[in-house]
Amino acid sequence: MRIRCLLLALFALAGCQNGHYEARDGYAVDKTHPALGARPRVKVVVLHYTAEDLPSSLATLTDREVSAHYLIPAHPSRWRGQPAVWQLVPESQLAWHAGPSFWRGATRLNDTSIGIELVNPGYRRTPGGLVWQPYTPQQIAALTPLLRDIVQRYGILPVNIVGHSDVAPQRKQDPGPLFPWQPLASLGLGAWPAAERVAALRQGIRDDDPALTQRLLNALARYGYGLPETLTARQQQKVIAAFQMHFRPADYRGIADAETLAIAEALLEKYGEAE
């Protein structure tokens, strides 16, 4: 035991003299040759609503089946004058939040993403249709610095800050049409098309173009949405609606139109195609 402690002390001393070494329990690590091909695990941020109240959200997200890295209450508490968010899973570990998913060529988004849940009931059904519930200013005030910190630490691209409905449009609708994508994008925390380019591109697209739906689906696939080779009309509607909820929430019926295609083309101009 005394010899082992002496060896650890020697390794620690060597580490002080040579920063490439790190002493561990029973061995040392030489960090002289870092690989140039190393990349951060985290490439995407996926945003969700919980569709539950706070106690139910906590119970669900701390269970064995579903989890997220962060949870933001509707009215976060404050610590030293700053909004406090709950971290439920370390960023170095996977959280089970995305499920079967696809974004810009990648599947299994749980492996490469950070999941952020916002406590929000989602919507309620009424005779007149779905009534969506807004996010609180306090939530967005807490989300903004959290997103900025994650983006800076991992170098996440604007196009890779997405909603659950973007990566799983056939299954999910969160964070819904009331999520403030445009204000966040204006801070560099997400993608948004240039209005003047949308207007210019819109002029060159006919609403009665018989190929409009297929042109839009092709553009969405190039931007990063997952589209199987064959889609039913209902599946087409869902993926178009997911895109519209994100980038044109005033009308998200899932119907292809010239404005939606112009938005998609403006995004492709600005951010490029998925690799």
TrEMBL record:
Protein known as: N-acetylmuramoyl-L-alanine amidase
Gene: amiD
Similarity comment: family membership: Belongs to the N-acetylmuramoyl-L-alanine amidase 2 family.
Reaction(s) catalysed by this chain's protein: Hydrolyzes the link between N-acetylmuramoyl residues and L-amino acid residues in certain cell-wall glycopeptides
GO-annotated molecular function: N-acetylmuramoyl-L-alanine amidase activity
Organism: Duffyella gerundensis
Signal peptide: none
Biological-process GO terms, alphabetical: cell wall organization; peptidoglycan catabolic process; peptidoglycan turnover
Domain N-acetylmuramoyl-L-alanine amidase: 33-176
Pfam families attached to this UniProt entry: Amidase_2
Record CDD domains: PGRP
E.C. designation(s): 3.5.1.28
Keywords: Cell wall biogenesis/degradation, Hydrolase
One of the record's GO cellular component terms: outer membrane
InterPro entries hit by this protein: Amidase/PGRP_sf (IPR036505), Amidase_domain (IPR002502), NAMLAA_amidase_2 (IPR051206), PGBD-like_sf (IPR036365), PGBDSf (IPR036366)
